[in-house]
């Protein structure tokens, strides 16, 4: 029996979490879910969107599945996601991006992986208001954090039979910060002679990705570029509803979809649970439950191939109809 923390999130979070918990239960795998609420809903009762009990639960269980949490724009509390990644030192954000059966997109054979540094860059939250009309955000890049994310990307490439790790920067303009990230990549790459190396500027990468994404394999990027590029790559395989993710540290891992809490479709039984389900499948592999991971993945792929689709993929099936169809396909 596995103990796993489940943060069911805001917006569509509770609906897609319910779907995924149900599918895993019906697959026959016994998981003791430790339900922990976080985000906008708990601020009033607990005074913080990320109570210590949530962090303690993840530290104890080592693994969490997390649905999206709302972050207010411009004012209000700091992002729970950013805080969680920082507090648990989940330094690697892994976003595999692969075409799904039955989901027609512009390109076939997209199969790339975005490895995003998760703790630094403009996301470090170091900002200052100089005067009423001027604000500064400070971009923090260290050699230590840059080398460990590059090493993670190369190790991932070796473990998963990948050929190339391409580093993405804007080192021609941000010569010091992105220059340090690039230099760290070059240092680490020396230890991986069997993996092809490549360097690209982020603007050129975006242009090439929309022309032909099959040119890329593993991408390693500082935090902000990683965030933006991984939404772009999500669009290449069918959109946010199918884009999975994981935040991995030395001690703990938190698996979550790329998308946010989608308040525009909250409570309408319309949300696509695929991104959270794919994240959960990766989580099952992480805890060495490969057979169950495969069983659920096969059921999902079969369901999509049969034409069951939620509205974001151009279909007309509700979250619950899609969930029931996957459960029927669990063989
Ligand atoms: P969003 O990803 O929530 O939504 C963007 C668009 O995609 C919306 O039209 C939405 O309906 C659609 N969409 C997203 N996921 C979907 C799904 N599973 N099924 C069907 N349609 C889906 O991005 P937005 O609107 O920018 O952010 C909403 C909130 O989520 C914000 O407060 C933001 O801070 C937060 N957020 C949280 C994240 C997390 O917890 N990891 C990640 C990204 C955003």
Explain what the structure shows.
With 331 residues, the chain is an alpha/beta fold. It has two domains: 179 residues, 3-Layer(aba) Sandwich (Isopropylmalate Dehydrogenase); 131 residues, Isopropylmalate Dehydrogenase (3-Layer(aba) Sandwich). It is 40% helix and 18% strand. It has eleven helices and twelve strands. The strands form two sheets. It has a ten-stranded mixed beta sheet, with helices on both faces. Helix 5 crosses helix 6. The longest helix has 17 residues. The chain is globular, with a radius of gyration of 20 Å. The chain binds 1,4-dihydronicotinamide adenine dinucleotide.
Give a brief rundown of this model.
The protein has 331 residues and is of the alpha/beta class. The protein is 40% helix and 18% strand. It has helices at residues 13-27, 40-46, 52-61, 80-87, 143-159, 177-189, 202-211, 223-236, 274-286, 290-305, 319-328; strands at 2-7, 31-35, 63-66, 92-98, 111-117, 127-131, 134-137, 164-169, 196-201, 218-221, 246-248, 253-255.
What descriptors fit this protein?
12 strands, binds 1,4-dihydronicotinamide adenine dinucleotide, 2 domains, two-stranded antiparallel ribbon, ten-stranded mixed beta sheet, alpha/beta, 11 helices, globular, Isopropylmalate Dehydrogenase
